[in-house]
Amino acid sequence: MSRRMSKTGRDRLETAIYATISVVSVLVFWHVFSVHMLKNEFILPSPMQVIGGLERLTLGYLGGNLLYHTGSSLLIVITGYLIGLGIGIPLGIMMAWHEPVNRIIGPVVAVLRPIPTPAWIPLAILWFGIGMSGKVFVIILSAMVPCIFNSFTAIRETPRELLDAARTMGAGKRTLLFEVAIPSGLPTIVAGMRIALGNAWATIVAAELVAASAGLGFLILAGYRNFEAPVMAAGIISIAIVGLIMNFAFQWFESRITPWRESEER
Amino acid sequence: MAMEQDTGNDLSFQNLGMVYEARTGSVAALDGFSFDVRANEFITIVGPSGCGKSTLLQVTSGLQAPTSGKALLNGRSITGPSPDKAMVFQSFSLFPWKPVKQNIEFGLRVSGMSRAERDELVDYYIGVTGLTGFENHYPRQLSGGMQQRVAIARALAMRPRVLLMDEPFAALDAMNRTLMQEELVRIWSEHKPTVLFITHSVEEAVYMADKVLVMTKRPGRLKCTIDINAEIGCAHWRTQPIDEVLLVPKFQELRHRVWEEVRAEIEVNA
């Protein structure tokens, strides 16, 4: 998913051909292995059985169809993600710009950072119950931490010469922050937002596996409890598809918000 | 604060000293540097690496305060950066996220100039520096020579009293460098701001300057001044193309003299 990927039609075609070959080979291998060698659909259903599973999900499974469960997961992810960005990015920027803020909040962030977000899930359930708020809480954490870290790094690594150049042109502290440090660090900040989105998506699935009554993670767990491997696999594939779509949407967003970086290719 | 004496000069350096505290001990970059620059003078500064040339510009721009002595602009102590002292950096220091036009107008916008005034000035300097047609390009889409033109336009648009240039052409290839030297002289002569121009090229120094300052090895102080105008005695050669000036015996003699002075400093170092 390199941003430097060339944009000529020929290269695009080649990329598409390789992608098709790669996905089709996995499907063929999967089919041959499950149908002709393993022959145990409780352990590994065949691709066709998984399509059957997807069909079952779209018709409705445990309270709603696939769209309902996907929507349930997405609602929590987007809510928590946006709050996480809203807290994390300004906090990281402020920590980098005002040393006292860094001295006070920095140590707390340093402690939070190495904790994998799923570790919070049981505690979040204890505090907020199994409803939406507990999950939103862990999603906020999962999105906030990479945003703080990347925003902090982005501002701290503003090239000294750019700040100097702006200062010689009469820029004050506010202008330096909003017109030099933040735009200069924007690619790094956006990279943090991307990591945060991946984190949030992984975390919601984990949270739904622990306690939920809807959502894609819940579907997988339900499939497991009902000995329905095709449903579990269909749930996993749905997660992958939504993840891919989010990634593409993010790439589009990235190219819009940092247009000067696209010009590097030319 | 004590009264500053007005020396009648545009820039005045009085016994300037700069000591950096490092973990390994203190390093004196400048020591007792004194010199007066008259308004509209084009000064080039040469000297061995690490002799404090860049420090001198940093102090003049107000980005750093000297540890001793003082730097005066128009009789007043320089206390911080301000738009009347524009700087052109070796690495261009353009804002990569801003197209050419926005890069050039940055300082004007920050200083609160109206849009109409800004547009007029920016358009003028885009024309003067030969950037017409590239207004909406991002810096990365331009060659090194073009990027440095943007940096020069950005500095000139501030209509500074003093233009500080820290090896501005060092990152350019030899041909672009020659072209830019001639271009800079042409652009400079339109408004003649006072220029402090640091370079490692003796040829460049002698071609463009009214006066060449040679600095000693670290800690840097003024070794000697070569008054090019006085030496030439008639019209300055910088209005002619470099390849022609290179053939002028007086140019060759002065280049040789400056080089001998610099060389002595480098060899003392070795």
Can you describe what's shown?
The complex is a heterodimer of chains A (266) and B (270). With 266 residues, chain A is mainly alpha-helical. Chain A has helices at 9-38, 47-59, 66-97, 99-112, 121-128, 132-156, 160-168, 173-210, 216-225, 229-257, 259-262. The longest helix of chain A has 38 residues, at 173-210. Chain A is globular. By secondary structure, chain B is of the alpha/beta class. Chain B is built from 9 helices and 10 strands. Chain B has a 6-stranded mixed beta sheet with strand order 6-7-8-3-9-10, sandwiched between helices. In chain B, strand 9 and strand 10 form a beta hairpin. In chain B, helix 2 crosses helix 3 (115-128), helix 2 packs parallel to helix 4 (144-157) and helix 3 crosses helix 4 (144-157). The chains are: A mainly alpha (266), B alpha/beta (270). Chains A and B meet through helix 7 and helix 8 of A and strand 6 and helix 2 of B.
Helix content of chain B: 25-40%
Report the average pLDDT across residues of chain A.
89
Q: Termini distance of chain A? A: 18 Å
User: By helix and strand content of chain B, what is the structural category?
Assistant: alpha/beta
Strand percentage of chain A lies at under 5%
Major β-sheet strand ordering of chain B: 6-7-8-3-9-10
Order of helices and strands of chain B: EEEHEEEHHHEHEHEEHHH
Which two chains touch over the largest interface?
A-B, 24 and 27 residues
Structural class assignment of chain A: mainly alpha
Number of discrete helical segments of chain B: 9
Q: Give the quaternary arrangement of the chains.
A: heterodimer
Low-confidence stretches of chain A: none
- What's the number of extended β-strand segments of chain A? 0
